[in-house]
Amino acid sequence: MVHRRRSNLPELLRPGDLVIANDAATIPASLHGTHQRTGSAIEVRLAVREADCFRAVVFGEGDFHMRTEDRSLPPAMTLGDRLVLGPITAIVRGLLGHPRLLLLELQGNLWSGLALHGKPVQYSHMQQPLQLWDVWTPIAARPVAFESPSASFTLSWEMIAAIRDRGAKFATITHAAGISSTGNEELDRLLPFDEPYIIPAYTANAIKQARVSGGRVIAIGTTVVRALEHAAKGNLVVAGSGIANQKIGAGTRLQVVDAIFSGTHEPDTSHFELLRAFTEDSTLLRASDELNANGYLTHEFGDSVLIERRIA
Amino acid sequence: MFDQPRVAITGGTSGLGLALVHEFVNRNAKVVFVARTLGQVAEVANRTGAHGIVGDVSAKEQIYPIALQISGVLGGVDVLVNNASDLGSVPLALLADTDCEDIERALNTNVLGPFRLTKALLGALAASAREGKGGVVLNVSSDAAINAYPRWGAYSVSKAALHHMSRVWAEELTPEGITVLSLDPGDMDTPMHALAVPDADPATLKSPATSAREFAEVIGAVLKKAYAASR
Question: What domains are there in chain B, each with its CATH number?
Answer without folding.
Answer: 6-230 (3.40.50.720)
